[in-house]
Amino acid sequence: xxxxxxxxxxxxxxxxxxxxxxxxxxxxxxxxxxxxxxxxxxxxxxxxxxxxxxxxxxxxxxxxxxxxxxxxxxxxxxxxxxxxxxxxxxxxxxxxxxxxxxxxxxxxxxxxxxxxxxxxxxxxxxxxxxxxxxxxxxxxxxxxxxxxxxxxxxxxxxxxxxxxxxxxxxxxxxxxxxxxxxxxxxxxxxxxx
Length: 193
Hints:
The chain is α/β, with parallel strands linked by helices. The protein has two domains: 1-48; 60-190, Glutaredoxin, CATH 3.40.30. The chain is 46% helix and 17% strand. The protein contains five helices and seven strands. It has helices at residues 3-47, 89-105, 125-131, 143-149, 179-190, and strands spanning 60-63, 68-70, 79-84, 111-116, 137-140, 157-161, 167-171. Helix 3 links the parallel strand 4 and strand 5. The longest helix is centred in the N-terminal third of the chain and has 45 residues, at 3-47.
């Protein structure tokens, strides 16, 4: 048999073996990718971090007229608390949006509270709100509660508290038309027993 024939048979054998080896490598790679994807999905499901929402701190503050109000007065209700000041332009901008949410969800149990901070002596935050068509209750002299209990260091800061007393989130958003306020209020109301 001429050498050229032998070489062509060896090359054919080598080409067939090379194709077979490429097929094995490809199948191994596909299997490894599928295996990794399945493992990642299982890991994601089994080790997904559980979000722990902190308990809202207990506090007692006064209204402008001196009536004592405690957080425990709202046990079992969803609460939105906004920390604000009569001197804060962004707070003034936000108030109509919170008032809209209060009016829409109050009958369903939602409580919207203001806590004024950093006010000058003689400031009348509730009068300020009422004069501007805002009807949610505001509490006064909330500086210590804001900083120590809630770690609030700027205004407006709005907190969203579940009926179970957990702080679910916070924002410094001041856009009264932000649709998230309405969505969050609806969600909070839906959490009631």
